[in-house]
Amino acid sequence: MSSEAFMALIVYAFVTSITPGPNNVMLLASGVNFGFVRTIPHALGIGGGFLTLLLAVGFGLGALLTALPALHVVLKIAGGAYLLYLAWRIAMSRAMASGNAKARPMTFLEAAAFQWVNPKAWVMAVSAMAIYTNPANPFASVMMVALAFAAVNVPSVSTWAGFGTALRGFLADPVRLKWFNIAMGLLLVASLWPMIR
Fold first, then answer.
1. Helices (runs of H) and strands (runs of E) counted in the chain
2. Among 16, 53, 109, 120, which has the minimal tally of Cβ within 10 Å of its Cβ?
């Protein structure tokens, strides 16, 4: 891969990682409700889960989904149902969690597993592998794409948790927090639109 192509890949990884989507909406809400430190496992889970999805797509899972459209439909339905459940949980949250609160942010494993049903993650993975890999050198090019996303994804998505943490003071008012969480739940539902059209 040329240096120009690699820089284009880095830009693609950055833009797709930092723009709004289900992961970033959930990290923003988690930053507000739980703070940055408690949200770190969630952000790391996104990075780890997306990396495994990316490698799986690069090494053949994308072709399997193309060959079996019914599997793709099942993934879309499962992902949509899980996003609706998460949106409901966020929208119904009414108080910021303290360190001992019963409510908790997503764990590393939950966030990693979510990538496999996240429609934006699938679009990112399939597009990156289709555009930036070289059929003449598949292993090396898949690993280059994975390396680019590994370097860019977690810092990019973590900024959303940082934004949420910065809003904690303003949203300490229970009425503001209630409406913020409702708005975040609705945004998460809205993120389903690309999947259903």
1. 10, 0
2. 109
**Are the CB atoms for 133 and 145 separated by under 8 Å?**
yes
Is 51 contained in some domain? yes
d(CA 188, CA 148): 27
* C-alpha triplet 38, 102, 161: angle, nearest 5°: 25
pTM: 0.80
Residues 47 and 150: beta-carbon distance below 8 Å: yes
In a domain, 117, yes or no: yes
Q: 99-105 — which CB contacts under 8 Å span 24+ positions?
A: 99/38, 103/33, 103/34, 104/34, 104/38, 105/30, 105/33, 105/34, 105/38, 105/39, 105/41, 105/42
pLDDT in tens, 54-107: 999 998 876 776 777 787 677 777 777 777 887 787 778 766 665 445 678 899
> Cβ of 179: how many Cβ atoms within 10 Å?
12
- Domain containing residue 53: 21-196
